[in-house]
DNA sequence: CTGTTAGCGCATTCAA
DNA sequence: TTGAATGCGCTAACAG
């Protein structure tokens, strides 16, 4: 039978100090190494701590120190395969600096993002914010609170907030270059959320592509496997020889539909993903795609936030490069 | 330029009370609805809160209330595709009950698990523990603290701790039944971590299988795609007609190797996964497997923990059923 | 080196 | 209904 810890039976620093025959301050000093303490007292404190099973109350420490020892992360969708690795890296960095990690999810709902960030701000030393669709004005309001914060996967020009992102533009440029060199002239892009900065960055790459003879048509689609599945058939009719996607999920959906329709890939049409979601951990995917260094992204983000916390350091936006992986779904256009 | 919130410029309940011309107690009452307050005062408080941008300090609330408003979750590997959906569900339930979610990862290292749980206990009202390999003695020690805790994916007989898990035994029995009905007589099981309860449950199903004429040989393997890739070749030589795996990742690795070797699936050998990791979110996988209701698992776990916190309620271990999904990698044995 | 004192910011007694 | 006083558990500043 478990009880919730009745306040009375919770062991505090005073219980320890009494048991050890020292003051509470000494117990604190021993446990935190804040000051030199006579070794005999140190031993008595440690004994008492062990006997009583004492653990400092984190809330009390936070209050007294003015620091929570916690950072917060807000992501739009915990189940999106993009984030686990990022969180893993953030968690590792965070832990290495002696802090804990609070995680919240907005469930892709911009309406709640603001509240969640506010909530994080009142219980975390710093916030890592991945909020692709939050309106600029709301972001500005949050930034104005001067609470340590790092923007993740989104760069907002004119905001004095450290941010880390991926060079999506360059990534898509590599994709286009690959296709152009294979001889493709017309391609379609299954577009992601139109309000998303990350999507806009991808699209921006098509201007340069045009200069090199590759015309890319943007088609509204979405960010899910299902969306790719539904949209791809109509796109094919337009006579393109290659299909680019907002992310790998969309590409998987599209491939699935193409397979059903008996369309051969890459013989009849090339399909190129984005993000490289399924690479290492799940299957040896054969999708040509361009990869995000998700673990590095998480690690660097955690480090920037830590520096911000310790030094109050403000840094320039950081862009991580993407890498093209040519696999089995891209090839020369049908002639 | 961001500063870390200088203590002096942090707005407290006293700032609000001064601005509104009321006592701090009244501010507290208005914000928490703890008692009736004259409506004119209510308005003044709300105005002051808005003007000053006041947000209650979570640590101070926690201290005063004796509750942190936070639950903690410990998982062995954040990047394991098994957990995102679980965390998503836990997060939703937790939030619905007005609590936050702290997440920690043991990185599959039993040595640190104990410390992490201790850390969670001193900053969380309750703990959700997924720790497949922690020795029974250590678990017992943690349970003895009487801190609200729910065991996840592990049932420990004789412990008075609420636990929720999946009926792995039944799941593997379904797999064996499927194979037996197809006519298979000899199969190999690529075993997961030997210390894991979840693995033992799967193996337990092979006794019944034998009674139905299916002989399953257990082969040490591991829990990763790589392990499946490395081990499967040697297994094939033993002449089995079907390969069962600890999880889908292992199965994917095995399939990858088989494909390389030109072994046809399921014509020459059937391959059956476990967990159904890649189903909906990523690709339309064609692996025959048996699925875990991961979101329900997370939801139910969160609810049990919440009940424990509110009622101090102790419940019997809960087992969720698995579902067999017959797809393209299983078929009749070669003759 | 150690104990005593005084907050940290809030919720909750107790009086009024 | 409201305000003043007290304490949650801990750390830091101050004496000794």
TrEMBL record, chains A, B:
Keyword terms, alphabetized: DNA-binding, Transcription, Transcription regulation
Residue ranges of domain HTH lacI-type in the record: 11-65
InterPro entries: HTH_LacI (IPR000843), Lambda_DNA-bd_dom_sf (IPR010982), Peripla_BP/Lac1_sug-bd_dom (IPR001761), Peripla_BP_I (IPR028082)
UniProt xrefs under PROSITE patterns: HTH_LACI_2
Keyword Transcription: yes
Entry superkingdom: Bacteria
The name this protein goes by in its record: LacI family transcriptional regulator
Species: Kribbella orskensis
């Amino acid at each position: 039978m478990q009880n919730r810890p009745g306040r009375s039976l919770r062991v505090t620093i005073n219980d320890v100090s009494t048991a050890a025959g020292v003051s509470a301050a000494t117990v604190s000093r021993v446990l935190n190494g804040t000051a030199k303490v006579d070794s005999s007292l140190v031993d008595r404190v440690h004994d008492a701590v062990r006997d009583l099973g004492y653990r400092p109350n984190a809330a009390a420490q936070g209050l007294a120190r003015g620091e929570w020892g916690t950072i917060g992360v807000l992501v739009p969708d915990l189940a999106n395969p993009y984030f686990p690795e990022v969180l893993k890296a953030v968690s590792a960095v965070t832990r290495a600096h002696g802090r804990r990690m609070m995680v919240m999810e907005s469930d892709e709902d911009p309406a709640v993002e603001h509240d969640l960030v506010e909530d994080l701000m009142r219980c975390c030393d710093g916030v890592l914010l991945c909020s692709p669709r939050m309106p600029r004005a709301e972001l500005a309001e949050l930034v104005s609170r001067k609470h340590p914060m790092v923007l993740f996967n989104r760069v907002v020009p004119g905001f004095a907030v450290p941010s880390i992102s991926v060079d999506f533009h360059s990534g898509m440029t590599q994709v286009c270059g690959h296709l152009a060199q294979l001889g493709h002239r017309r391609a379609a892009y299954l577009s992601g959320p139109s309000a998303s900065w990350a999507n806009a960055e991808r699209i921006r790459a098509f201007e340069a592509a045009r200069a090199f003879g590759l015309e890319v048509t943007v088609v509204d689609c979405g960010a899910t496997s299902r969306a790719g599945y539904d949209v791809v058939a109509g796109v094919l009719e337009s006579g393109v020889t290659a299909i680019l996607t907002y992310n790998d999920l969309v590409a998987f959906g599209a491939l699935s539909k193409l397979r059903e329709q008996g369309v051969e890939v890459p013989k009849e049409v090339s399909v190129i993903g984005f993000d490289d979601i399924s690479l290492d951990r799940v299957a040896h995917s054969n999708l040509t795609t361009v990869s995000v260094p998700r673990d590095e992204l998480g690690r660097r983000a955690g480090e920037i936030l830590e520096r911000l916390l310790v030094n109050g350091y403000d840094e320039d936006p950081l862009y991580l490069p993407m890498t093209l992986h040519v696999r089995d779904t891209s090839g020369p256009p049908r002639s």
